[in-house]
Write a structure and sequence with these properties.
This protein has 166 residues and is mainly alpha-helical. It has a single domain, classed as Up-down Bundle (Ferritin). It has 5 helices and 3 strands; from the N terminus they run αααααβββ. Strands 1-2-3 form a 3-stranded antiparallel beta sheet, with helices on one face. Strand 1 and strand 2 form a beta hairpin.
Length: 166
């Protein structure tokens, strides 16, 4: 279930990286895309090693309408709707991650589920800030940060570093 859930998240993040107007949101989505793609690879390797199965990921049915809706949006409308959808996508996963981190048979899986739970809870807060029009700071990796200008700076616009274009 988590492999497919993350696969849908990767697709949403890819769309975000292409269409978001805010560098900070692009940075957050880029980080989600990379992290969840790594987690998919890890979980697939565990499924093969532990259970002899190698399932091909697919976008969950509940994520497909979100992707179709988002594909037709642009500008601030896209940023807000993507943030709402991603926050909801993460909220739907939190109970599963919580159950996994408490009861999974394999310690490595419990640790990964704990990390996923904490990360996605933090990301929900960031998406809610985007919805509210507030700036967020995102560690884009390799020492780069993406952040936003604020009203106090005259709305100087979105700034990016570490390879995330404004």
């Amino acid at each position: 279930m988590t492999v497919d859930h993350h696969f849908g998240g990767v697709r949403m993040a890819e769309l975000c990286v292409d269409k978001a107007t805010r560098a900070d949101l692009k940075g957050l989505c880029s980080k989600i895309k990379d992290t969840q793609a790594e987690e998919i690879a890890t979980m697939r390797s565990w499924l093969k090693a532990w259970y002899g199965t190698d399932e091909t990921p697919s976008v969950p049915p509940e994520t497909k309408p979100m992707l179709e809706k988002l594909a037709g949006l642009s500008g601030r409308t896209f940023d807000v709707e993507l943030s709402r959808d991603f926050a909801q996508h993460h909220r739907e996963f939190l109970p599963e991650a919580d159950e996994c981190r408490k009861h999974a048979e394999h310690a490595k899986l419990r640790a990964l589920c704990d990390t996923m739970y904490k990360t996605q809870a933090e990301e929900i807060d960031k998406f809610e800030a985007v919805i509210a029009g507030k700036p967020i700071t995102v560690d884009t990796g390799n020492g780069g940060l993406a952040t936003a200008g604020t009203a106090a700076t005259g709305g100087a616009g979105w700034l990016a570093a570490g390879g995330v274009a404004a």
